[in-house]
Every structure is written in C-alpha cells, then in structure tokens.
Amino acid sequence: MADPKGFLKYNRATPSTRKVEERVKDYKEIYKPVDETFIKDQSSRCMDCGVPFCHSGCPLGNLIPDFNDAVYHEEWQKAYEILSETNNFPEFTGRICPAPCESACVLGINNLPVTIENIEKQIIEHAFAHGWVRANNFGVESGKNIAVIGSGPAGLAAAAQLNKAGHRVSVYERNDKPGGLLRYGIPDFKLEKWVVDRRVDAMKEAGITFICQANVGFNIDIKDIEASHDAIVLCGGSTIPRDLNIPGREASGVHFAMDFLEKSNKYVDGGLKTIPAIHVKDKKVIVIGGGDTGADCVGTSNRQGAASVTQIELLAKPGNNRTDKDPWPLWPMVLRTSSSHEEGCQREWSIQTKRFIKNETGVLTGIELVDIEWKLDESTGRYDFVDVAGTTRIMECDYVFIAAGFLHPQKEGIIDQLGIELDNRGNVTTKNYQTNLPHVFAAGDMRRGQSLVVWAIQEGREAARAVDRYLMGVSKLEGKVVNELVMG
Q1: Domain that holds residue 327
Q2: Confidence label for 483 from pLDDT (cuts 50, 70 and 90)
C-alpha cells in the first residue's frame, strides 16, 4: 500500500475538460493534460485491498493495485510492464472504457472510487513517450500463418497475442484503414485517430500485416484465405443494427446511428473531401436510444452545428444511486451524463416512437411519440410497458438517428459461405472460441454479442490462446478466468 492515508488525504479528481464553447468547434480530445503529481496523488488513493474486487470488475483482470503502487513510487516503466501483462491497448481503454473496475473498487463502498481509467491512460502515454512500447514475442517463429478477419479491438488483440506467440499474422479489414469500431464508430473527441494509427504502426513494426479494403467473402474468396492459412479468427463484430419497423421508416432523414457516425468520422479523418451526405447543420435532430452510441450522435450533432438535439429512451430514467438490485460490486444501473450531454441536449425517458412523419416528397418532418409506463407482470416477473393516455404528440425534426443497439453479425459472406453455426441470437456458436470448423475461431461481438471495447480485447486475447493451443498443442500465452457476473 503506497500511502495508507492516501484515500483520506485526496479526493477523487479527474482531468479537467476544455470549455464547451471551445471544444464543440473541433473534434479534438476534450480533456486537458495533467502533470505527474496529479496522477501520483490519485494513485495514492488505492487501498491495496486484501481482496481487490477491481480485478474481477475488469474483464481483463488488470493488476490494478500493483500498477497504482508503481505509479505512486514514480516507477513508470514498471507500471507499464504490469499493465501490459493483461491489457494490449491501455490507450483505448484509458479513453473509452466505462470503467467497470471503478464500479467494483472497494473504496467505492462509502467513497468515490480510484480513477483507475485515467491512471491507465497516463501510464501508456508515458510508455509511448519514452519508447517502451515495442515488439514483444517469445523469440521463436512457429511457421504458422493465421488470418484475423476484422481489425476492431478484438481482432487487434488477437493479432497482437498471436504475433507474440511467434505466428505470422495477417489482418483483413474491409474498410480503407484498420481500427474497425475504434476508427469509424467512435468520434475523435473521445478517441482521436492518431491514437489508433500509433498502435497500428507499432503492430506493423512487430511484423503483423494489415490488408485493407479486403471484404472477405465478397472481393476476397474465403476459400483462398483457408488455403493459405493454418487458422482463421473471425472478429467482424456485431454489425446488424436493431431497426424500428414502424410507419414512415422509409422517410428521408431517418438513419442508423452508425451510418451517421461513420460518415462523420471519415470526413474528420480526411477520408471524405466534401461535407458528408448526412450533415445536420441548422437542423433539428432526434436520437433514439440512450446509450453510448446515442451520446456519440449527440456530440457529433453539436459539432456539426445542429439547431437542437433531443435524445429519447424507451426505458425509465435511472436513479442517481445504486439499489438492492445492483449493489456493490455489480455494475450500477445509475444515470450517466456524458460530455456530449453537457454540450447541449434535451433528454427524455419512457418514450415510445409510434411513427415517422414525412411530407409529400418523402422527407422527414417529425415523429409521433407517446409516454409509456413500465409495469411488472407478477405472473412472469417481467416488466412491460403501456401507453399513457393523452400523451401522444408530434415532435418536429429534420433528422432521426436510430441508436437502439446491434442484433448480430452479418451472415452474408463468410458465415454463410463457411457454414458457421449460429446460436439463437444469431451470434457465432463456439466452444472455447472454436467454431464448428476446427480451424476457424471467433471472438468479440461476433461471438459474444454487442458489448464493451474492454470485453472485445479480452475476447481477442482468449481466442488467440485457444488458436495457439490448437496449432501447437500448448500455449505460452497468459490467460484469465473472468467473472461475467460482475457485468451482469
């Protein structure tokens, strides 16, 4: 324990943000830099608990008290070595992870938890600045060739681990640059793309090959991939969005959230030379869905100069504190306000969308909404909702972005062509990450279903270990048994 009284001396503090009126004019990261004294003080709040619940709260099992102690003693390289044992990409999790580890922090029982996420970010930035991030393998080339299909966080983690084990790894990405969700789904104000490029460059230097604009199953034959590789890891993500099949869905102006975000991200990244086709300057925007993707639409709309932004959610408004249904150390179902909401957004809960309204030319002009009331069905134990009489109304809008989550991976292409078995939710069925084809593995949202970036990294790491064992009989890659009950 670095400082037995650290949690008494210092209150929880996070980096300050740039002023709203400044940051909405660009897509740069919103947080200001902090000095090492600030981070040292925050790391001293860690109590080095006898049973560190933060370990189980983190899907990766990061050794959090250990790297906190190293930071406190200003042993930054040691802190990086500890953190990189379990986490391939702290620069991603340190920026965009919702930090389930902090929800499980023992200090959080009666105080505010340690700022674990930000400490991770500072460790990895220190490591990059001092040149400590370099190729790390076991020094033996296996002679095995592996194809990783998809370069999101699961694919990148699988590739990094398999390369570490001495295999030759090729990553196939259907878009024009690697990164998947990290590049095209998450706005730059949360994750600037130089951060992704820096990591991809490091992986290339380590010997990993990236092939972009390679839509396997379409412009590249999956049979050719099979013939030239000893194993395949499918990391294509959960890409089929949940739709709202209600009257007027075909109206011009109704879009899936990811279509909006991808076009905006490509424009910011320089991939589009003209203003993207979906642009909301001076327009009235409604975002359907109260999660992170919806919040990203809010922040992007504000930066594009929307006249107004409203975010609506079917579920009831969460409370500010835990209840007996989500006690510590479980993930708390509490109200979360993101930086995007702070920049300007009207938020409403318990709202159902009944229909989209369009004019005679098919252009969206508004949506019909109704308040709902959630009620418990005593016979089934399930909650359902009913419309509240007299609350039906029309809200004017020019654009609607549907951010209602994702259903399952795309079946056309690889899954259909290989005959990969799916579960009842439409996700890839596996046993220890191995599909019904012994040489084909799956990881991330494609296997698990829509989840967090930190879970995708964990999935990629575990899939790599399963592939290594399949090819070599045993695996030197470290593994982790995770407690999925922590995330529900």
Answers
A1: 243-404
A2: very low
Reading the block at residue 133, the tokens are 């991030």
386 domain-assigned: yes
Q: Give pLDDT, residue 135.
A: 78
Residue range 127-156: mean pLDDT, rounded:
92
Total domains, the chain:
3
Q: Would you place residue 460 in the very low, low, confident or very high pLDDT band (cuts 50, 70, 90)?
A: very high
Could you tell me if residue 136 is inside a domain? Answer: no
Peptide bond into 329 cis (omega under 30): yes
The domain boundary residue, chosen from 404, 439, 467: 404
pLDDT at 485: 35
CATH of the domain at 443: 3.50.50.60
Give the DSSP per-residue string, 144-203. -EEEEE--SHHHHHHHHHHHHTT-EEEEE-SSSSS-THHHHTS-TTTS-HHHHHHHHHHH
- Both 263 and 324 in one domain: the answer is yes
Residue 271 shares a structural domain with residue 300: yes
Q: Following DSSP, what letter does each residue of 76-124 receive, concatenated?
A: HHHHHHHHHTT-S-HHHHHHH---HHHHT-GGGGTSPPP-HHHHHHHHH
Give the Å distances, CA to CA, from 94 to 101, 169, 290.
12, 26, 22
Closest CA to 72 of 92, 53, 94, 45: 45
